[in-house]
Amino acid sequence: MSTHNQDENVHGSHGPKDVDASQGYEQSDVRVTGIVVFLAALGIFVVVTAVLCYGIGKVFNAELNKEDGPNNKWTQTVNIRQLGDLPSNPEMQRKVAELAQQFPTPRLQLDDGNQDITDLHAREDLLLENYSWADQSQGKVRIPIERAMELVAQNGFLSVAPEVKQAPLMAGDSKPVVTAPLTNGFARTGYEQDAATAEALAGKRGEQK
Fold first, then answer.
1. How far apart are CA 55 and CA 67, in angstroms?
2. Under a CB-based contact definition with an 8 Å cutoff, are residues 108 and 91 in contact?
3. Contact assessment for residue 161 and residue 146, using Cβ atoms and an 8 Å cutoff
4. Is the dihedral of CA 101, 107, 111, 113 positive or negative?
5. Could you tell me if residue 26 is left (phi over 0), alpha (psi between -120 and 50 degrees) or otherwise beta?
6. What is the dihedral of CA 26, 32, 36, 42, to 10 degrees?
7. What angle do CA 53, 59, 65 make, to 5 degrees?
8. What backbone phi and psi angles, to 5 degrees, belong to 132?
9. pLDDT tens string 188-203
10. Domain ranges of the chain
11. If residue 14 lies in a helix (H) or strand (E), which one and from where to where?
12. What are phi and psi of 134, to 5 degrees?
């Protein structure tokens, strides 16, 4: 047989089969065996993986319990379901707040520190704007800062610093001039200003009603 005939036989045996498309659909059946084998292998893989994960978890937990030792009052398990619904339980919220106050410092801040600064300024304002005892046993009293400034201006309690001798100015230099500061060195934070604005608006709305 010639080589040309062999090539024709080879192409003829491996070429596409004649397909009858007159029915308009696939006429061959699905091979169920392959699907069953795949599903069985997948199920076996899932089961084996689950067993391995469970066994590894048991080993890890056993080692951790061995290192941690028996439970004590610091490591005992707490059932959080007994806490109830905190948002709708004011009594439980109060207990949680008391526990938070007993927690040793430093405590984590619940915000950016704005409320802490506001509270600090409020305490400072109480000392700066009101009379209070500095040392009751010695009869020392704190007075408001405005009153203290008036007494200093009237009586001149503050000592005057001696005049500083300045070296003669060099050529082209000029005597420096100190300008009065634009502020008194104290300014409220943006958080406090926003809170004051909101409080003022709420007061106006209350007056309008």
1. 19
2. no
3. no
4. positive
5. beta
6. -20
7. 130
8. -155, 160
9. 778 888 888 888 888 8
10. 34-70
11. helix 3-14
12. -90, -45
How many C-beta atoms lie closer than 10 Å to residue 118's C-beta?
16
Residue with token string 């919220």: 93
- Identity of residue 76: Q
Which secondary structure element, helix H or strand E, spans residue 141, and what is its range?
strand 140-142
Which token pair is 130?
Answer: 């009101």
State how far Cα 1 lies from the chain centre: 85
Q: pLDDT for 50-107, tens place per residue?
A: 999 999 999 998 898 888 777 777 776 767 676 665 566 677 778 877 777 776 667 6
Q: Can you tell me the distance from the alpha carbon of 94 to that of 82, in angstroms, rounded to the nearest whole number?
A: 15
Residue 49 in tokens: 């993986």
Task: Please report, as a single letter, which amino acid is at residue 201.
Answer: L
- Provide DSSP, 44-94: HHHHHHHHHHHHHHHHHHHHHHHHH-S--TTT----GGGG--GGG-HHHHH
Quickly tell me which residue has 């704005």 as its tokens: 114
- Omega within 30 of 0 (cis) for the link into 162: no
What does pTM read for this prediction? 0.33
The span from the CA of 184 to the CA of 146, in Å, is 13
